[in-house]
Amino acid sequence: MLELRPTCENCNTPLPPDSLEARICTYECTYCASCVDGVLDNVCPNCGGGFVPRPIRPSRNWKNDNYLGKDPAGTKVRHRPVDPATHATFAAGIRSIPPEKR
Ligand SMILES: [Zn+2]
Ligand SMILES: [Zn+2]
Question: In sequence order, what DSSP letters do the residues of the chain get, joined into one string?
Fold first, then answer.
């Protein structure tokens, strides 16, 4: 199950479970849209993969207890800011390769 991490791992801005700004990679590394677009160039600094919008877990119990009330968002903050220059070099190398071959 997705952990729904509470903040952007780069700038630490809050990303509550209903945030439309949260982006995740396949490993659930979590960043805000502004960092993904402006600093990360859609390259995850931890794994080199890309990002997609994080889905919103229902706040209501529509079906079978699959909702935030039973499975709340994570609380463990992982604030590990990237160095923009170091990341730019890392991202440029990856982005020079076609997405399906990365
Ligand atoms: Zn951010
Ligand atoms: Zn990642």
Answer: -----SB-TTT--B--TT-SSEEE-TT--EEEHHHHHHTSTT--TTTS---EEPPPPPSS--STT-STTTSPPP------PPPHHHHHHHHHHHHTS-GGG-
